[in-house]
Amino acid sequence: MGVNRMKIPNVMKTAAIDHFGPPSAIKVHEQPVPQPGPGEVLIRLDAAGVGSWDPAIRDGSWRPPGRTKFPLVLGTDGAGVVVARGARVRRFRVGDRVYAYEFGNPKGGFYAEYVAAKIEHVARVPQHLDPLQAGALAPTGLTALQGV
C-alpha cells in the first residue's frame, strides 16, 4: 500500500448483462477490478445511482458510441472513496470521498464494487451529503442545472 493506492482485490462483483434485454438479463458477475489510467481515479463504490436512462441502456435502445462489449457493467453514476489514482492525477488523494458519472465508460459502469473514472467526471462529496445522496448527484444535479 502506498500513497497512491489502498489495498485492492483483483476481482469484484458487478451487475452486468451478457446481452441486451429485460431486467432479468442483469446477472451478478465476477470481473477484474479495472486499473486507473494516467488521468483516472479508481473508486471503491458505496452507492450507485439509478436513472431513467438505465432501462434504455440495458435493453439496447440507447448505446454508447462504438461496439458494445459484453459483459456490460451497467450504471452511470455513483459515490465512494478514491483507492488508487493514475500517474497524472494531482487533484484527488487516496481516501477522498467522491462522486462521479461516466456515460459509456469502456472500463465498466457503476453497478460494481469499483469503477475507474476520468478526473474531469469526478468531484469531492460535499461534507453534508452521505454516500447515498452523493451517489445520485452527478446526472440528476446536472439535469436540474440544465433545466434552470
The CATH topology is what? Quinone Oxidoreductase, Chain A, domain 1
Q: Please give the CATH architecture.
A: Alpha-Beta Complex
Count of separate structural domains: 1
The share of residues in extended strands comes to 25-35%
Could you name the CATH class? Alpha Beta
Instruction: Please count the helical segments.
Output: 3
Cα-atom Rg, whole angstroms? 15 Å
Q: Can you tell me the residue ranges where pLDDT is under 50 for at least 5 consecutive residues?
A: none
Order of neighbouring strands in the sheet with most strands? 7-3-5-6-8
Structural class: alpha+beta
**Biggest sheet, in brief?**
5 strands, antiparallel
CATH superfamily: Medium-chain alcohol dehydrogenases, catalytic domain
Number of strands: 8
Gap between N and C termini: 44 Å
Order of helices and strands: EEEHEEEEEHH
Shape: globular
Q: Quick check: average pLDDT?
A: 90
Q: State the share of residues found in helices, binned by percent.
A: 10-25%
Report what the structure shows.
The structure is a single chain. The strands form two sheets. This protein has a five-stranded antiparallel beta sheet. The chain contains three helices and eight strands; from the N terminus they run βββαβββββαα. It is α+β, with helices and mostly antiparallel strands and 148 residues long. Strand 1 and strand 2 (26-32) form a beta hairpin. The relative contact order is 0.24. It is globular. It has one domain (11-147): Alpha-Beta Complex (Quinone Oxidoreductase, Chain A, domain 1). The longest helix has 11 residues, at 137-147.
